[in-house]
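Batch manifest, entry 17 of 40.
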Amino acid sequence: MQPMIFVNLPVKDLKAAMAFYTALGFSNNPHFTDETAACMVWSEQIYVMLLTHAKWHSFTTRPIPAATSSEVMLALACDKREAVDTMTGAAAKHGGTADINPVQDLGFMYSRAFTDPDGHIWELFWMDPAAVPSA
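Output type: structure tokens
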């Protein structure tokens, strides 16, 4: 079995969160989706579990931070520079907030950050494969 990551995120409105992530290009895995949680698939190894607040609290008693705070920034690599802009634009169109940090353009690497409707921070980046040093 390949290593996989499941990012668990508390969300206020599960249907709205599912629509947001679908608009960004995620697909839904209905086998792990019900009225309390939704499994959104980015790739064969990366899954985002959207959990209602009640479902979240079944895993931890720690409080859910306010949407204006941050604990982590989740970063996803894009295969093209244009994909960074396309996905960030989709985030802004569907209830997220784009460019919460300055756009970073280093020539060989390009990144933009946005929040989803619940305030979770995502950073999208592209890096020129030719600029990566060989081993």
